[in-house]
Amino acid sequence: MRGIVFVLLLLPFAALRGQEAAPDSVAPSQQTGRYLLKACTASALTPAGRVRRQYCAGFLTGVEETLRVVAPAEAGFCAPESVTIRQLVTAFTRHATARPEAIDQPAAVIATQALRESFPCPGMHRE
Predict the structure, then answer these.
(1) Are 108 and 48 contacting, i.e. CB atoms less than 8 angstroms apart?
(2) Residue among 78, 118, 32, 73 at smallest CA distance from 40
(3) What value does the CA radius of gyration of the chain take, rounded to a whole number of Å?
(4) Where are the domains of the chain?
(5) What's the rounded Cα separation, in Å, for the pair 17 and 59?
């Protein structure tokens, strides 16, 4: 499990390639769930908000792809191939807002928990 979290912490760098730096120039490995939630819920009506939302989508897509590649059943994640970015963002925002006591944990940890909860493998219990 520790190896998966390490890989997840590195993935957001791929989301930055070809785009502006993360909002407020926070290193992806130092982001908290609070930080990512702010990016995911930013206004789409402003240029800065759109950049934040794109960053959120890239971050969550990176987490999803990692879980899909690294033994999905072992990771407790079994999303359909047709899962959308909107579904990933909804899963994260729902999970993060429902657990304010955990919002300052690393964003990759919270994202992993959210995706496992929203897309559990058959026969696995939801947290």
Answers:
(1) no
(2) 32
(3) 14
(4) 2-118
(5) 12
Does the pTM of the predicted model rise above 0.85? no
Rounded distance between C-alpha atoms, residue 20 and residue 5, angstroms: 24
In terms of Cα–Cα distance, which of 126, 115, 116, 112 is closest to 2? 112
Q: How far apart are CA 51 and CA 62, in angstroms?
A: 16
The rounded average pLDDT for each run of 10 residues, N- to C-terminus, in the chain (127 residues) is: 48 42 59 94 95 96 90 80 95 96 94 94 65
Q: Residue 90 carries which side chain, given as an amino acid letter?
A: T
Written as six digits, the tokens of 106 are: 């690393």
Find where tokens 């791929």 sit: 14
Tokens 């939302």 correspond to: 53
The partner residues of 89 in beta bridges, in order of sequence, read none
CA distance 92 to 71: 21
